[in-house]
Structure prediction request, 186 residues.
Amino acid sequence: MSSALEPGKAAAFDEDVIVLDRVIAGDKDAFQVIYERYHDKVQAIARGILLDVDEAHDVVQEIFTLVFRHCRRFDRRSRFSTWVYRVAVNRATQQARRNRFKRFWVPMGESFDRAEPEHTPTYTDPKIDRALAKLAPSDRAILTLFYWDELNLTEIGEALNCSANAAKTRLFRARERFRQFFEEEG
Prediction:
């Protein structure tokens, strides 16, 4: 489907690039637009990978610092949102790997200091939380991108730096591991 048939998508992309150009030109107020536009989704990604609200909040701040410092590196071959999601997945996954020896668990349904974004899961089943906690950060990342951020396989592939087919395979495997852990919870 061409972008001519989907004017909303093309306009959103063009608007991101225009705002990004203002940031690169030194307009720090323009970065606030980017922050507000992507904060909730980046928060959901970090929270989905880290499973800890406070740690996700800290990582989100680091993610936006990285986006600000490295926005000149955005090469414009993909959508800006995809690049932001890639930064978020990479940074949250790095933090999760650092934490792999820590044993902590916070229910995914726990609320933020601010209102929950619409795409944050609202379930209360502790079996889901425990099953997610057993998954590798990379599995939580792909499930978060697909189910909570509702990205398609092409967008997930771009965010994870792989093909859409590889993203499909990773998603299938992550679902299977989640199902196995969920069933073990009884």
